[in-house]
Design a protein that fits this description.
Residues 26-37 have a biased composition (Polar residues). It is built from six helices and eight strands, in the order αααββαββαβαβββ. By secondary structure, the chain is an alpha+beta fold. It starts with a helix and ends with a strand.
Length: 258
């Protein structure tokens, strides 16, 4: 009996030992699915993200060069003064034109005078220093000859002092209120400066300012010494610039007034 018990114990021990060896063999060969797998020490290689294709930068086409021809010579631009209040500027601009005009008046050359008169405005005749813009006689250059030949009288204004009407033919008005003295030989000539001064208001620079017009005055300070200058007389020629030429726009007579 005892012998049998020992045999059973030995068999059980052998059986247990055999099972342990089988477990070790399975663990070594990796056949046991429940045993944890060894962790790899090499980190997995990350797959690169797909790259977005970059469009090539288009080549810029240079703008065509425009060849600007250079002027062969620089034009000379002479700036005009903003005002002719300075006598030297006024004289330089108008002296030649004024000489033509005074000679035409001296010779009663109406054809030449017509060429010097403003082609659109005509010329205004004023018997005294105060210019009446609305009532003074205005004549186009083309109408001078017709007016000269007209034997009927024209109303030119009113006499200073008496207030009587100045109703004269053009030749008679000329002798009394245009070329009543030899102004081509006047001892004094001024440019945008008033020489003769009487009691009557002189508004020539209000009507024809020096910013756009030039007034040339031919002046006799006195004719007979016994009158001590009380018989002075002047003729004023007023010019405006049309952009290309100076034209006569007014003939203003002046004399001593009471």
């Amino acid at each position: 009996m005892r012998r049998m018990v020992e045999i059973i114990l030995v068999a059980a021990i052998i059986s247990v030992m055999t099972g342990c060896m089988d477990e070790q063999t399975k663990g070594a060969t990796g056949t046991n699915s429940s045993s944890p797998q060894p962790t790899s020490m090499i980190p997995p290689t990350a797959s690169p993200a797909p790259s977005t294709p970059i469009s090539p930068t288009p080549a810029l086409t240079p703008a065509p060069t425009v060849q600007v021809p250079l002027p062969t010579s620089t034009p000379s631009i002479k700036p005009s003064p903003t005002s002719y209040a300075k006598e030297a500027d006024a004289k330089k601009a108008i002296e030649s034109r004024a000489n033509e005009t005074i000679q035409a008046l001296k010779e009663q050359d109406l054809k030449k005078l017509a060429e010097l008169i403003h082609p659109k405005k005509g010329v205004q005749f004023s018997p005294y220093s105060y210019i009446h813009v609305s009532s003074d006689v205005q004549v186009l250059g083309s109408g001078l000859t017709t007016l000269w030949a007209n034997t009927s009288t024209t109303h030119w204004g009113d006499y200073d002092g008496s207030g009587d009407p100045i109703d004269l033919t053009f030749p008679d008005y000329w002798d009394k209120f245009v070329y009543n003295e030899d102004f081509a030989a006047a001892p004094q000539i001024s440019y945008n400066i008033i020489l003769g001064r009487g009691n009557m208001i002189n508004n020539v620079f209000s009507v024809y300012p020096t910013t756009s017009a030039i007034t040339v005055e031919y002046h006799y300070p006195g004719l007979d010494p016994q009158f001590q200058g009380m018989d002075w007389t002047s003729l004023r020629l007023v010019y405006e610039n049309s952009g290309t030429q100076w034209y006569l726009v007014a003939i203003v007579h002046d004399q001593h007034t009471m």
